[in-house]
Amino acid sequence: MKKQCKTLPVLLLALALLTGCFSSESTTGVQSADSTRYKVALVAKSTQTDFWKAVFVGAEAAATEYNMDLTIDGPETEEDYEAQNEMIAQAVRNGAQALVFSAIDFDANAPAIEEAAKQGVKIVVIDSAVNSESVATYIGTDNYGAGQMAAEAALDGVPGSLKVGIVNYDVNSANGQDRERGAVDAFAKSGRAEVVATIHTLAEATSAQADTLEMLRAHPEINALLAFNEPTSVGAARAVEELQLHNALWMVAFDSNLVTVDALQTGVVDALVIQNTYEMGYFGVESAYKLLTGQRSEVEKHMDTATRIINRENLFALDSQKVLFPVS
Amino acid sequence: MKRRYRSPRTAPLIVALITGVAAVTLALCVAAFLRSYRASVVQGTRTSSAQAVSQVVGTVSNYVDTLEETVNDVMAEMDTPTESRDAYLNAWLNARSEVVAVTTYDEAGTLQECWALDHTPRTKILRNLSFDLNMAELYGDGYISSPHVESIFEGYYPWVVTVVRAMPAGSAVHWVAVDVRFSGLGASINGVGIGQHGYCYLMDEHGNMVYHPQQQLLYAGIKSEEGARLAQLPDGTYVEDTVIYSIQDVPDSNWRVVGVSYIDETVNDSFWQMVRVTLVTSALILAAALLAGWIISRLLSHPLQRLERAMEQFEQDADGFAFQPVAGTREVQELSDSFGHMVGRIQRLMTTVREEEINLRKTELKALQAQINPHFLYNTLDSIAWMCERGKNADAVKMVHALARLFRISISRGHELIPIEKELQHAESYLLIQKFRYKNQFTYHFTVDENCLHCLCNKITLQPIIENAITHGLDLMVEPGHIEIVVCADGEDILFKVVDDGIGMPPEQVAKLLKNEPSDRTGIGIKNVNDRLRIYFGPQYGLSIDSVPDEGTTVTIRMPRVPEDREGDYEKTM
Fold it and tell me: Which of B22, B216, B280 sits opposite A327 (nearest CB)?
């Protein structure tokens, strides 16, 4: 009787230990199966330009790093906000849990974003803002600052008084307008610059080229030309080349692609404002992951990605190479 | 008493002990396991890291060798006639898709010729990254450049490394540079993983990245590698906090392969798994300990507590205690049995003691009755004789009758309990005799509740008290005194009161009366009366004396109402 009483708890204890080991092992085994891949949709302004291709590379790198399902979509033209709204709705229908978005139209894209947020989708905005309170974070260039940078590059390049021509894109696009304001303010501050013409063209090279040609012909006094995104830069550069204004005109272009980099070397373009597009895509998707995993506190409401000026002197410096030329 | 509350109960103590021992053992086991586990993981990772790096070094080394050979081929072709050379180089470029361009330079470092598939160099080259005259002159024989962008073409900017070689003296060209993309090499480096998240990369001797699986992340500034620091270290494997670096030179080149692997992920995973196991096990141990505690408390503590309570009860009421044997483990049962035996013995002993006490009192009483105060008898007989001499025959007859009644009732055929009526007659006979003797120095009166007359009381209860009232209260008075005897019911009890208006007694004398049997005289004392009442009826009964000096004494006797037919209940062994 006495011995039984003492051995019984010991036996129970041993039994408990064994079951404890087994049970916990089986639970961890179940957990390790990755059944919970988050679905993230990236809706861009375009899928054609080098700018967006670099964003996608960054986004895909982050999606791989964080083991998420990433779908990438964008409209044919950078004016088609309705197609964007449809893509947002489609992404939500497809079960996207987070949306990385760049708005073509600051106001017109807002209802679709609000609708998606109502379904519980986390919203991350990159590059271009949208008029919605549901946006968890904005990641992109400080557009006003980038506009100022562009203006200062022109002011540095042209001594004396400046007659400035501005080639901008869709008047409803928030980032283009911010860049323009930044540039106009910087010119006004300098006291030796005057903006003689501003055009809003389609964000597409051929129409930008045509509109720029028209503007340059109408205002031959222009000695500084600013273009505020990749397609308009390409179009404007072609127009400058067509008119053989390499030396007569100081051109500042936005974003890098093969055409503008070539144009920088030939002297058509004199400075490039480079945004860290890869960073935008990467941090956009990374923020989406943080929001989905409940690390909201680690996501800042506003995150500026780096911007830099590239000119002929620093084009082939190692740092510039790293930013300008993607690794294939 | 205090110590008993401070020491803990058995069951919780056992629970605490089991849990504590198990927890400590478990913690030690887990700590030991994690320690050895971490060591083995680190060792394993070191080994696999070094292996992976050697593998990559092998691949890269092969690659460099082939490159070297082909560059030698190209160099051999340089001095052949232009047409055959161009044909050879074009075929060669087609065969080796990773070669972007072959360029030649004169002694001053000026670009002479360029062969590339589908691309021709710009007419005006802003900066040629494929050739650095300073470097070429520094190394003499040639060098392999850091990664750079191919900068001589329009609209084509692939990342390349350049292999620069000096042509033998006498050749038309001074330097040959071959720009090589390392996509092929990249695939073999990408494919090498170490552990879950480990990887390899290729850097040059200064820590510049030649190829990294996440090169774009590095270039975008999102990720960084400590290439510059690692470049300082000789070949080998370095364990740093959570990262293991494995570094190895690629022979015949200025490249080095670095393997990066992480300890934490694997160790931390198993750490948390161990923590989970520990928590679950601890919970189970606690449950097991509680179960054990419960079982022990069922088997040991509870019976012991019951035994303890039984002992307390026994302590408070030894007479009325009835012992219920306690079930439990063998020890407890033995304890319980022993206690049961002890209770039985104590109770038997107590009964024996009480019986002996009663017997003692009875013998004492009988002895006292047998030797009734001889002085009283002489005096009474003297009085009777005196009456006869004086011819007071009627009084003499009364006296003789009273005396006879006194003795008859005193004896009462051996009964202890007699009807109150008889007791009152006994008292009256005594008073009558004493009144003659004390020459009417006092008067007396009975106030009796008729309902009480047929109840029983101890015999010779009133006489000692009356005697005391006369000798201590009235005898010393000049004035004639009065004795009032009252019998009345008080609820279930009957009260006898003997009230005199004599000189009374101080409290010390009262106490003495109840405490000591008077030694100077024979006969039954007040203490004897009180003792008998208590033995018979219990401690709540007996007599009380209320005396005020110079005013008188009241002696109250309380006893239960005993109807005649219930005599047997109290007769006991008498």
Answer: B216
pLDDT at A6: 46
Residue with tokens 């109408």: A218
Comparing CB atoms, the residue among B154, B222, B331 nearest residue A282 is: B222
Q: Could you tell me which chain B residue has the CA closest to the CA of A31?
A: B273
Pick from A24, A308, A323 the residue to mutate for testing the B interface (most B CBs within 10 Å).
A24
Q: Which residues contact A241 (CB under 8 A, 6 or more apart)?
A: A263, A266, A268
What is the reported pTM? 0.59
- Work out the number of other CB atoms within 10 angstroms of the CB of residue B372: 17
Q: Which domain holds residue B457?
A: 371-571
The CATH number given to whatever domain includes residue A85 is 3.40.50.2300
Does residue B284 sit at the A interface (CB-CB below 8 Å)? yes
pLDDT score, position B86: 87
Q: Could you tell me which residues come within 8 angstroms of residue B75 by beta carbon, excluding any fewer than 6 positions away?
A: B165, B167, B176
> What are the Cα distances from residue A283, in Å, to A39, A66, A133, A291, B213?
16, 11, 20, 12, 19
Lowest mean pLDDT among A263-267, B248-252, B360-364: B360-364
**Which among A80, A89, A86 has a CA at the least distance from the CA of A117?**
A89
Give the confidence band of B530 by pLDDT, cuts at 50, 70, 90. Answer: confident
Q: Indicate whether A30 belongs to any domain.
A: no
Residues of chain A whose beta carbon is less than 8 angstroms from a beta carbon of chain B are 1-2, 5, 8-9, 12-13, 15-17, 19-21, 23-25, 27-28, 57-58, 61, 258-259, 261-262, 265-266, 276, 278-279, 282-283, 306, 312, 315-316, 318, 321-328
At residue A301, the pLDDT reads: 87
CATH number, domain with residue B490: 3.30.565.10
Q: A196 vs chain B: nearest CA distance in angstroms?
A: 33
- Contacting residues of B for A13, CB less than 8 Å apart: 18, 22, 285, 288-289, 292
Cβ-defined contact of A9 to B289 (cutoff 8 Å): yes
Q: Backbone dihedral region of B240: left (phi > 0), alpha (psi from -120 to 50 degrees) or beta?
A: beta
Q: What are the tens digits of pLDDT across the range B57-110?
A: 998 888 888 888 888 888 888 888 888 888 888 888 888 888 889 999 888 888
Domain total for chain A?
A: 2
> Do residues A79 and A224 share a domain?
no
Domain membership of residue B474 (yes or no) is: yes
Task: Say if residue A170's pLDDT is above 70.
Answer: yes
Distance from the Cα of A13 to chain B's closest Cα (Å) equals 6
- Measure CB to CB from residue A327 to each of B122, B159, B283 and give the nearest one: B159
Residue A255 lies in a domain: yes
The number of distinct structural domains making up chain B is 1
Q: What is the pLDDT averaged over residues A280-288?
A: 92
Candidates A129, A141, A146, A144; CA nearest to A253 is A146
Residues of chain A found within 8 Å of residue B291, distances taken between Cβ atoms? 9, 12
d(CA B291, CA B275): 24
Assess whether A300 and A197 both reside in one domain.
Answer: no
Residue A25 has pLDDT above 50, yes or no: no
**pLDDT, mean over chain B:** 83
User: Which pLDDT score is estimated for A2?
Assistant: 41
Q: How far apart are CA B131 and CA B143, in angstroms?
A: 10
Classify residue B523: in a domain, yes or no: yes
